[in-house]
Amino acid sequence: MRKLRFVFLALVSILLMGITTFAQGTGGTTGFSSYVDLAPFAVAFAAAIASLGDGKAIAAACEGTARNPTAGGRIFTMMILGLALIETLVLFTFLTVLLWFHR
């Protein structure tokens, strides 16, 4: 099932990248509009993948705390650090899209 999900997500991402490659402008456009159309999908894709990572990190932290309750504080600290690093990837994607719009 994991392999099927990986293949499906890889296929969807390849197809979404192909939209900008084969997009046809209407005369005077420079191709900027095709990137504008896909920019929200980049943020949504980054947020979706980050939420999957967050879920796995939280599940692993809960499982680790259940197995060894005395290490709960250290596991919680490392989980918060990991979640912060995962979420910065989404913020970097959002910042990249925002800067792309205002250049």
Brief digest:
By secondary structure, this protein is mainly α. The chain has three helices and no strands. The mean pLDDT is 79.
Strand content: under 5%
Based on DSSP secondary structure assignment, what is the total number of beta strands?
0
SSE pattern: HHH
CATH top level assignment of the domain at 34-103? Mainly Alpha
- Low-pLDDT stretches are none
Please give the alpha-carbon distance between the first and last residues. Answer: 42 Å
**Which term fits the overall shape?**
elongated
Q: How helical, in percent, are the residues?
A: over 70%
The CATH topology of the domain at 34-103 comes to F1FO ATP Synthase
Number of helices: 3
CATH-defined superfamily of the domain at 34-103? F1F0 ATP synthase subunit C
Mean pLDDT: 79
SS-derived structural category: mainly alpha
CATH architecture classification name of the domain at 34-103: Up-down Bundle
For the biggest sheet, the summary is: none
Gyration radius from CA atoms, angstroms:
19 Å
Write the layout of secondary structure elements.
Elements lengths: L1 H20 L10 H36 L4 H30 L2
Structure write-up:
This protein has 103 residues and is mostly helical. The protein has a domain at 34-103: F1F0 ATP synthase subunit C (F1FO ATP Synthase, Up-down Bundle), CATH 1.20.20.10. It has 3 helices and no strands. It has helices spanning 2-21, 32-67, 72-101. α2 packs antiparallel against α3. The longest helix has 36 residues, at 32-67. It starts with a helix and ends with a helix. The mean pLDDT is 79.
